Amino acid sequence: MSDLSNLYQDLILDHNASPRNFGELDCPTHRKEGSNPLCGDNLVLSLRVEDDIIVDVRFSGSGCAISKASASLMTAALKGKTIGEAEALFASFKDLLTSLEPSPASANQLGKLAAFSGVRQFPSRVKCATLAWHTLEAALHANDVASTE
Ligand code: ZN
User: Fold this and answer.
1) Distance in angstroms (rounded) separating the CA atoms of residues 140 and 107
2) How far is the CA of 85 from the centre of ligand 1 (A)?
3) What angle do CA 68, 114, 85 make, to 5 degrees?
4) How far is the CA of 144 from the centre of ligand 1 (A)?
5) Helix (H, G, I), strand (E, B) or coil at 58
6) How confident is the model at residue 128 (pLDDT cuts 50, 70, 90)?
7) What's the 64 CA to ligand 1 centre distance in angstroms?
8) What is the pTM of this model?
9) Whether the predicted pLDDT of 114 surpasses 50
10) What is the set of domains in the chain, with CATH numbers?
11) Which residues surround ligand 1, an ion (CB under 5 A)?
12) I need a labelling partner for 67 at 20 to 30 A (CA). Which of 48, 58, 75, 97 fits?
């Protein structure tokens, strides 16, 4: 088990040190800012959606290692997914982090994103890990401001 947690931790550290898809898209179809005031995490998510498929997605901003790594892994996971698939991923991610008894299917569906399962032991960090996802949801549904509050 400790090997597995080390692996997961390495993945989070790696994505924090070299975030994937960092920056902003030139012509996004969706763009949203999100913040987690409890920790001071801020990010801007920009997406290009064509025919219900997320063809490109980037994030920028600043925040703690968990928020950055989560945004990085999220953007990597979202490319090529339909909006429905993206929302299903978010539901599984939330389930894994916040349910008393997460469904084993959630972890299976999440792949690398399951690296954040250890965060569930630290409720204050759950908001860091879900910020990018809340921002995604707000971007897709054109909510005013994304916030973990
Ligand atoms: Zn944070």
Assistant:
1) 24
2) 26
3) 90
4) 21
5) strand
6) very high
7) 4
8) 0.91
9) yes
10) 3-140 (3.90.1010.10)
11) 39, 41, 64, 67, 128
12) 48
